[in-house]
Specification:
Layout lengths: L1 H14 L6 H13 L3 H26 L3 H9 L5 H34 L1
Length: 115
């Protein structure tokens, strides 16, 4: 739960000022430090960033009255704005999940190399 909260809070705060790819640095660093297993590293990282990007996409959708997401979904042939919002959140979640998994594996690699 600490890892999920860390990724969620720090990821949300850093997303306000830094580029989009910061969502990969936070889970990577957090999973080096706190992840107990590879599966939990991936799942918690994925879920935290998925929720951040889902909420951000929904906020943009509602603030623009659905106009922006509808136009972008037409441009990308996504079908509807709901599909676009889910694709956006899923993409961010996958990037973060793989970064978290890589962080966990980096810790294992470092521990093995010290032996």
């Amino acid at each position: 739960m600490k890892l999920f909260s860390l990724i969620l809070v720090v990821g949300l705060l850093l997303q306000l000022w830094l580029p989009w790819w910061v969502i990969m640095l936070v889970p990577f660093a957090g999973c080096i430090w706190l992840a107990p297993t590879a599966a939990r590293a991936f799942n918690l990282s994925f879920l935290a960033i998925f929720l951040i990007w889902l909420c951000a996409s929904l906020l943009i959708h509602f603030r623009s009255g659905g106009l922006l997401t509808e136009r972008v979904s037409d441009l990308l042939h996504a079908g509807s704005s709901v599909v676009l919002i889910l694709i956006t959140a899923f993409t961010g979640g996958l990037a973060a999940g793989f970064a978290g998994w890589a962080g966990y594996e980096m810790r294992l690699f470092y521990q093995r190399s010290r032996r």
